[in-house]
Amino acid sequence: MNLLTAVAAFESWAVGQDQQEVGWIDSYPGWPDVYKAVEAIVQRDDPVDAETLSAIFKVLLWDEEGEGTKEMLLASPALARQVVFSATHQEPEEVRYQVIDLAVRLGERDAVRAYLTDYSTRIRGRAEQYLTLGELE
Which of 42, 75, 89, 104 has the most neighbouring CB atoms within 10 Å? Predict the structure, then answer.
């Protein structure tokens, strides 16, 4: 299953879920397929198109704190950088929140600085926190 298909399957499943229930995303039975699809993209280690980037952003949003997805992306620094530098205007803001952490893990100070002018005080604050704490020395 490719990533676009995996994302479409999640979105179809999500329609029937009580999205107000805590942890509803975690109960998705297709997470293994989603992770395999992300892993396949990482293993190709090639730039991805806008549609695939959008799918990656959705997975980062849905994945609890995005940790599993971020770890996979870090295995392909070029792809991770593409994600980082393409996310500065992504909605919802939770995507940008996750991507800032990915940028820090990559050591991309300039990418983190780009979020200092974000309209969201939460996003600006996260960027400032990482830059102030010297996490990108």
Answer: 104
Torsions phi, psi for 18 (to 5 deg): -80, 95
- Supply angle C-alpha 93, 74, 47, rounded to 5: 80
Q: Which pair of tokens denotes residue 38?
A: 């992300």
Q: What are phi and psi of 87, to 5 degrees?
A: -100, 0
pTM: 0.89
The alpha carbon of residue 69 and the mean position of all alpha carbons in its chain are separated, in whole angstroms, by 7
Taking a C-beta distance cutoff of 8 angstroms, is the pair 74, 84 a contact?
no
CA atoms within 13 A of residue 125's CA, in its CB half-sphere: 4
Q: Is 65 left (phi over 0), alpha (psi -120 to 50) or beta?
A: left
| pLDDT tens for the 137 residues of the chain, in order | 899 999 999 999 999 888 888 888 888 999 999 999 999 999 998 899 999 999 999 999 888 666 789 999 999 999 999 999 999 888 888 899 999 999 999 999 999 999 999 999 999 999 999 988 766 65
